[in-house]
Design brief:
Layout lengths: L1 H9 L18 H5 L1 H22 L11 H29 L11 H25 L7 H28 L5 H21 L6 H9 L7 H6 L4 H9 L16 H37 L12 H17 L15 H27 L1 H14 L5 H50 L2 H6 L2 H20 L3 H20 L3 H45 L1 H7 L2 H51 L7 H42 L9 E2 L8 E9 L8 E8 L4 E6 L5 H8 L4 E9 L3 E4 L10 H6 L6 H10 L3 H5 L18 H15 L3 E5 L7 H12 L9 E5 L11 E6 L2 E6 L1 H6 L3 H9 L6 H7 L25 H6 L46 H11 L1 H29 L1 H4 L7 H48 L4 H5 L3 H8 L9 H23 L1 H6 L3 H50 L6 H42 L23 E8 L9 E8 L4 E6 L5 H8 L5 E8 L2 E2 L5 H5 L2 E4 L8 E2 H5 L7 H10 L3 H5 L8 E2 L8 H15 L3 E5 L7 H14 L4 E5 L11 E6 L2 E6 L1 H7 L2 H8 L4 H6 L1
Parallel strand pairs: 1-5, 4-8, 4-9, 6-7, 7-8, 13-20, 13-21, 16-19, 19-20
Antiparallel strand pairs: 2-3, 2-5, 9-10, 11-12, 11-14, 14-15, 17-18, 21-22
Length: about 1500
């Protein structure tokens, strides 16, 4: 009925099969006038609303933006409109004109011109709509419309020509002419629609990101990436070559959207979690016979009660192994979906199209084989099938690459969102949560766990795609082979439980692996942070053993996973063979009439090849999802944890005090005993309050409570104004000196200069070639302790905050510098005189100058009052001063000095005391900030530094840069790296794996040839009985060859995975072994995140080579910045700079994303071209089959086209595997780089000292000179002196004089440039480092502890008994504290010793020294962080316990070395004075000047 209507509508036949049953087929004119017209027009009308939307928006039409291209497009459409009108006019004239005939034209001649005229008007509007779209350069829908129109017009194009040739004239000249004019205009329009119509703004954007100006054709073929490919071909790519990101791909945009959805979903999850806890609590109470305890509702304590009950239940019932989920869960996946749902939907659409097209090729192959068998069919049919194979393959390739691009970009965005969320959470998380997650574990969340989500989202659509492909395959197989297909389905169903079992095992193994990796990265992070301590104590072997033990456990787990992977690979490889074998065997067995024809066999084989991917990918995807589930739980626990409580500190302006604490009790952990108890304190605006007390009394905790870092158990805090915080251990960023001081504030030159002068930094900068643009190393590694504190103080002073919290900043500086800083910055006449200041101090010399003194004892405020009133009260404070404040005997002058504005450095009779404060300038700063020159060539780097004038290497002055640019190889990976990896794998593994894979490929080819030969049986046994014996032989050999493939793949995978684990072990061990042996200068000039990045490497991340290198280099700053942020978290929070650091983190991640995004594009660029090449192979294989169909049998045709259909896959595999091998080897290359760093001297040599060395402890420096690096100035300039055994030597000097360098030289942390050091007449350069360092003892300036037990921190090699340990704890005044701990010596020390005060850490370092008790002891500012009373006890202990030893004391507090045998005064790397303290005081030289500055007179010295 429809056909009859159309025939009446057209006035001609709509369809007749006779048109195709001839050598030169054609289509009926009616079909061309209807269907082929409606298809393109219908597409345009359906897609028009999308283009017309922008016309509905209120936007001013800017005629100046009309480009020539736009005008040309509109002109062409207008001309087409005229041709449509012309066609209508011709019809009207012919039907109603003067020469009209009685027979009228059919309706189609009227409707088609009208349809086209309306369409052209619509198109004019659509093109205007596209022009108004922001950043639009073309329209994909309009291009597809023009393409469809041209393709549909090809049929009437050839019909009209053939008719004219047949009739030898043109029958209808007007319409003939109008059609070809419109066809020409359509071709022009198609070409114009493929061009980019860019506005000036877009052109500017394209310079930074060519993708922004890519047209539809360029986008689907990735042609816009050609520029990067050509640039990479001409020269190695560097970070500066990377293009800018689109806004939608930036970290800021992704993070904002993710956080929006996360807050909503996490809120719902928390409500669910609280409800579950409530239900469990009620359930437990109903079972309990106890009286109901009072409850204040479901408060914060309830969850802890429930968790404790559940924990108890777990211990009671050992069979219950189910983990208790003590955090809001099941919200992360929903958040990810809501954030990226449109990208998911788009990729799903392309995947669906690609999957459906995948099943068209086997059907076309079936038709092609039928065509070759049917010799009577027309040749054009074969060519049509060949063209269709090409078109289908091209479309499949385009859809596949669009799907993959979106999936990989989705993975990148998910990873970015998670990394940014982890960083943001780390900035606001509570201290309880911080203790649960170490820095190493948190870095693991950002790297490993976020990467797992990246990996799983890349292929998430396979969850529904694989079942779909399996079902459609079975349907088509049923159509060919009937019920025999069920045999194959049964085999697949049998494999489901096997895959489930493998997935469960994978989950367990993955959980173990993540725990081991966390432990390893945690300890590596601590090793790198405390590397100097390890070297000084020669503890590297102990920590190395710990790491290698953990690595050993990790490798065991990896090996288990490798075996599981091998078995899974075996199953997935055997699956298609078993399925096809079962199907074919049943098919030929059920009936003797069932003979396997080429048509059935190769169509089925093509379908089985399609089945191969879902059958192999689905279990892998399930395993990956299982692994990601572990990461999901870890991320949900971390991100769902409690934030720092915002209500701890109030900001009520009605209070009269700047700082108010009312009956406040504060604890570091929830539900633990408060550390600060019933504290009440009021500080007036502009007041200066000192907080004093013994070690562990709670001074630093008080400041933390004011900052809101502790849990409040009762009372409240009110603060009026903003904070600046100077921590006890100064936090310095890896940035320029200026950036460290500005700390995000705008630069004001005069204010900046005033701060530099007040903090005694001005003279330092004058000696630096780069001035305040000198780069400071990570953790201020190139600054002395005093310099770090001055920079930290300068940061606070520049900030213009209202309230300043100073946690003992003056303990790390020399006494005269301390007085200067107090006078010029902190004190009553200082820069901060009008600000509120809370000063924690151990020095009593400043107490007369403060408004109030707060005495803390065991977490309670003991006394509060002015210095004079506390002295007059004759209480505990007064007694303390009388006992430990003798160095303040000249108190009156000090008190007077608090109120005058004169400089504290008084003139002296000796002109040496006229030396200005510039002598205190850090020479160390000057020498340490020189540029590290590298011997290696072809280096590139990525260093991100905002708010800095460091723009390019050309503008960098000498001394400006300390941190060496991260090296990156260019060009091809060296053969030596390949050789090294194969060697690490093991030559045996490599040979046998290669041999086995060759055999496997032989079996694969043999199976296909056997099948081809099998299908010829259908011709040979046509209408004959098929021999059961021959049938069984065919089935048996086919199955045997298939199983052989699976077996050899299993063996090959097993060998390779074992080899990979072996290589991983060898390379990691080599890397660790070497990193522990490199000189300290390497760690001084290399960010720790960069080193940790090497240890966190995975060896199997597919990327393109150079982009992979750039990605690795740009990833290191992410971890470095994160580690830096974590170490300075309290400072960042205090200054309220979380937002600024988050922005900096986003910029750092963006730099990494640039390389990742381009790497994704490079893979797609390569893949689409390889697939196009493979598609041409399919096309030509089909064409040759058509040409040669009379000379080859159908079996070979089926085999050749089946192979051709797999060529694309094979080409992709070969090229990508080659690329992957070279890019994966980049990881080996980077590990190898650190494995080949130049080592320090050997730990042990053949020339070993005697067991009793050193017996006397004498020291002799002979013209000793040293520099930190070859290109730098000398640090020590010809030191010569003799020190007798048991002498007590004090070493003093202004900051940067070389005191700590002298100590480093004794341990050979830095090696001599000239001269030598003799200990008991033995040249220390002739023995091994460990032989030397094990015989010396040092109590370093920075107390470094490692996570582990207290026992491990004291005795890592388990050499001493518990009795000996308790004895040294008693001598170091820690016995009572440790005895009070629940676990005693087994008490777990937090990462970096964060659960101990700085003073307690220093006392533990003293205990280490007492335990070792060697003949020579070096004290490097060892008592800087303890109060005077504890300092006095430590000094007494040292005098008693080390009376028989040679003691070298580097000190800021001169009173601690006044009883030394002799004092060595260093200045600018030289010994300027060396004599007894009394003699030096008599000389009135350098030492006298320093003593006077410290308030020590000759009279007071004699009383000590």
């Amino acid at each position: 009925m429809c056909a009859a209507f159309l025939e009446e509508y057209c006035g001609s036949v709509f369809w007749n099969e006779s048109y195709l049953e001839r050598e030169d087929p054609d289509l009926p004119v009616c079909l061309e006038q209807t269907v082929l017209v409606w298809i393109p027009l219908g597409f345009l009308w359906l897609s028009a609303p999308w283009n017309l939307m922008s016309l509905c928006k209120r936007s001013q039409v800017n005629t100046k933006r009309w480009t020539k291209l736009y005008l040309c497009k509109q002109l062409v459409v207008f001309l087409l409109f005229l041709t449509a009108i012309g066609g209508l006019i011709v019809t009207l004239v012919e039907d109603f004109g003067p020469n009209s005939s009685a027979e009228k034209h059919s309706a189609v001649y009227y409707t088609n011109p009208v349809f086209f005229a309306v369409t052209w008007i619509l198109l004019l509007l659509c093109q205007e709509g596209v022009r108004r779209k922001e950043k639009a350069v073309d329209s994909s829908s309009l291009f597809l419309f023009w393409l469809l129109l041209v393709l549909c017009d090809i049929f009437p194009f050839q019909t009209l020509i053939r008719e004219a040739l047949r009739l030898e004239k043109v029958r209808d000249v007007p319409r003939f002419s109008l059609f070809y004019i419109s066809f020409g205009l359509t071709l022009i329009a198609l070409i114009l629609s493929a061009l980019a119509d860019m506005s000036p703004e877009t052109k500017e954007l394209v310079k930074k990101n060519p993708g922004a100006g890519a047209t539809f054709l360029s986008r689907i073929t990735f042609n816009w990436f050609n520029g990067m490919v050509m640039k990479g071909y001409k020269k190695p790519l560097v970070q500066e070559d990377m293009w800018e990101l689109n806004e939608a791909d930036s970290t800021s945009y992704i993070s904002q959207r993710f956080n929006h959805h996360m807050q909503f979903e996490l809120g719902k999850a928390r409500i669910r979690f609280q409800k579950e806890l409530k239900d469990k609590l009620l359930k437990n109470r109903s079972k309990s016979m106890e009286a109901p305890s009072q409850s204040n509702g479901l408060g914060k304590g309830v969850s802890q009660d429930v968790l404790m009950m559940e924990e108890k239940g777990k211990k009671d019932d050992e069979n219950k192994k189910k983990e208790v989920t003590n955090y809001p869960n099941s919200w992360l996946v929903t958040t990810i979906y809501k954030t990226f749902k449109w990208l998911l939907i788009e990729s799903a659409f392309f995947k669906l199209l690609q999957d459906l097209l995948a099943f068209v090729s086997p059907q076309l192959l079936k038709l092609m084989i039928s065509f070759t068998q049917d010799k009577s069919s027309y040749a054009w049919e074969g060519y049509l099938y060949a063209v269709l194979l090409l078109v289908v393959a091209l479309l499949q390739s385009l859809f596949l690459q669009q799907y993959l691009q979106r999936c990989f970009v989705l993975g990148m965005k998910v990873r970015t969102a998670l990394m940014a969320a982890v960083y943001k959470k780390a900035l606001v998380m509570s201290n309880d949560n911080r203790k649960e997650s170490t820095v190493g574990e948190t870095v693991n969340l950002m790297s490993a766990d976020a990467q797992r989500f990246n990996d799983v989202t890349n292929f998430i659509h396979l969850l529904w795609s694989c079942p779909l492909q399996i079902m459609v395959s079975i349907v088509f197989l049923w159509m060919d082979l009937g019920p025999s297909t069920l045999a194959g389905v049964a085999v697949m169903l049998l494999m489901v439980p096997v895959n489930g079992l493998l997935a469960n095992q994978a989950k367990k193994i993955q959980r173990e692996n993540m725990k081991s990796k966390d432990k390893r990265l945690k300890i590596m992070n601590e090793i790198l942070n405390g590397i100097k301590t390890l070297k000084l104590f020669a503890w590297e072997p102990s920590l190395q053993t710990q790491v290698e033990d953990i690595r050993g456990e990790e490798l065991k787990v990896m090996r288990k996973f490798a075996y599981l992977t091998s078995f899974s690979t075996f199953i997935s490889n055997c699956a298609p063979t078993l399925v096809s074998l079962a199907t074919f065997a049943v098919f030929v067995a059920v009936s003797s009439d069932n003979i396997l024809t080429a048509e059935k066999a190769f169509t089925s084989i093509s379908l089985f090849n399609i089945l191969r991917q879902p059958l192999s990918m689905l279990p892998m995807l399930i395993a990956s999802i299982v692994q990601t589930t572990v990461s999901k739980k870890r991320l949900e626990k971390f991100l769902g944890g409690d934030d720092l409580e915002n209500d701890i500190v109030c900001h009520d302006p009605s209070f009269n005090f700047a700082v108010s604490i009312c009956d406040g009790s504060f604890a570091w952990e929830k539900d633990s005993e408060p550390l600060l108890k019933s504290v009440s304190l009021g500080i007036k605006p502009g007041g200066l309050v000192a907080v004093v007390g013994a070690v562990g009394s709670g001074k630093s905790s008080l400041l933390s409570a004011l900052l809101g870092e502790m849990h409040r158990t009762k009372g409240f805090i009110n603060i009026q104004g903003s904070f600046a915080f100077i921590p006890q251990q100064a936090w310095i960023q890896n940035a320029t000196l200026r950036d460290n001081i500005l700390f995000g504030s705008p630069y004001e030159e005069q204010r900046f200069e005033d701060v530099l002068e007040a903090c005694a930094l001005g003279p330092d900068l004058k000696l630096l070639s780069a001035g305040d643009l000198t780069e400071i190393g990570e953790k201020g590694i190139n600054l002395s302790g005093g310099q770090k504190q001055r920079v930290s103080l300068a940061r606070a002073a520049y900030s213009q905050a209202d309230i300043f919290l100073l946690d003992d900043p003056l303990s790390a500086v020399d006494s005269h510098v301390g007085k200067h800083l107090f006078d010029k910055v902190i004190g009553p006449n200082g820069l901060l005189k009008n600000k509120t200041r809370v000063l924690v101090t151990h020095g009593v010399s400043f107490l007369p100058c403060v408004d109030e003194v707060v005495i803390l004892v065991n977490g309670r405020v003991s006394e509060v009052g002015s210095y004079q009133s506390l002295r007059a009260s004759k209480g505990a404070f007064s007694e303390f001063l009388d006992t430990y404040g003798t160095e303040q005997s000249n108190q009156t002058s000090s008190e007077d000095g608090c109120h005058n504005k004169e400089d504290f450095i008084s003139d002296s009779e000796d002109n040496q005391s006229d030396v200005p404060l510039a002598d205190a300038v850090s020479l160390m700063l000057r020498r340490e900030n020189s540029i590290r020159r590298s011997q290696r060539g072809n280096r590139s780097s990525f260093r991100l530094r905002k708010n800095s004038n460091l723009k390019s290497p050309e503008n960098t002055k000498k001394g400006q840069r300390l941190i060496e640019k991260e090296t990156m190889e260019t060009g091809q990976v060296k053969f030596s790296v390949w050789f090294q990896y194969v060697q690490a794998m093991g030559w045996g593994y490599a040979f046998w794996a290669l041999f086995i894979y060759i055999i496997q490929n032989v079996a694969f080819i043999g199976q296909n040839l056997w099948l081809s030969d099998w299908t010829n049986d259908a011709v040979e046994h046509y209408n004959q009985t098929y021999s059961p014996m021959k049938r069984n032989t065919r089935v048996g050999v086919f199955g045997a060859l298939g199983m052989t493939q699976g077996l050899f793949v299993f063996l090959g995978t097993l060998l390779l995975t074992n080899a990979a684990v072996n290589a991983s072990r060898v390379l990691h061990s080599k890397l660790l072994n070497n990193v522990l042996r490199v000189p300290m200068v390497f760690f001084d000039t290399t960010p720790l995140g960069r080193v940790l990045n090497r240890f966190a490497k995975r060896f199997y991340i597919p990327t393109s080579r150079q982009l992979r290198r750039l990605e690795s280099v740009s990833r290191s700053p992410i971890y470095s910045h994160f580690g830096e942020t974590m170490s300075g978290l309290s400072v960042i929070r205090a200054y309220n700079h979380q937002e600024r650091f988050m922005k900096h983190n986003e910029v750092t991640i963006d730099e990494n994303l640039k390389t990742i995004f381009l790497r994704i594009m490079s893979n797609r660029w390569l893949a689409i071209r390889l697939q196009f090449l493979g598609n041409l192979v399919v096309f030509f294989a089909a064409v040759f089959a058509v040409i040669s169909r009379n000379s080859i049998d159908s079996g070979l045709v089926g085999l050749s086209i089946s192979y051709a259909l797999n060529v694309t896959l094979t080409l992709n595999f070969v090229v990508s595997i080659t690329s992957q091998l070279e890019t994966n080897i980049v990881a080996v290359e980077r590990v190898s780089e650190y494995s080949e760093l130049e080592n320090e001297a050997p730990w042990v040599t053949q020339h070993r000292p005697s067991e009793k060395w050193p017996e006397v402890g004498s020291l002799q420096f002979v013209d000793y000179k040293v520099r930190y690096r070859p290109e730098l100035d000398l640090v020590l300039k010809g030191i010569s002196c003799d020190i007798s055994g048991t002498e007590k030597i004090g070493i003093v000097g202004r900051t940067g004089a070389g005191k700590s360098s002298l100590a480093n030289c004794l341990f050979r942390i830095i090696e001599a440039a000239e001269g030598r050091i003799l200990i008991d007449n033995l040249d220390i350069s002739t023995i091994g480092l460990h032989d030397l360092r094990n015989r010396l003892t040092i109590i370093p300036q920075d107390p470094v502890l490692f996570s582990g037990t207290l026992r491990m921190n004291l005795d890592p090699f388990d050499k001493f008994s518990n009795e000996e340990l308790w004895r040294v704890l008693e001598l170091s005044h820690l016995k009572d504290y440790v005895a009070g701990l629940k676990e005693g010596l087994k008490h777990e020390v937090a990462e970096g010793g964060e659960n101990l005060s700085v003073g307690q850490r220093q006392l533990l370092c003293l205990a280490r020294a007492l335990l070792r008790k060697s003949q020579i002891l070096i004290l490097d500012e060892a008592t800087a962080a303890v109060d005077l009373e504890t300092d006095d006890r430590i000094q007494n202990t040292i005098r008693k316990e080390f009376s028989h030893c040679t003691v070298l004391t580097i000190a800021h507090r001169l009173h601690s070395i006044m009883d030394s045998s002799r004092v060595m005064v260093l200045d600018a790397g030289k010994i300027v004075e060396f004599d007894s303290p009394s003699n030096l005081m008599e000389k009135r030289g350098y030492f006298y000047s320093m003593a006077k500055d410290a308030g020590i007179t000759h009279e007071s010295e004699t009383t000590l």
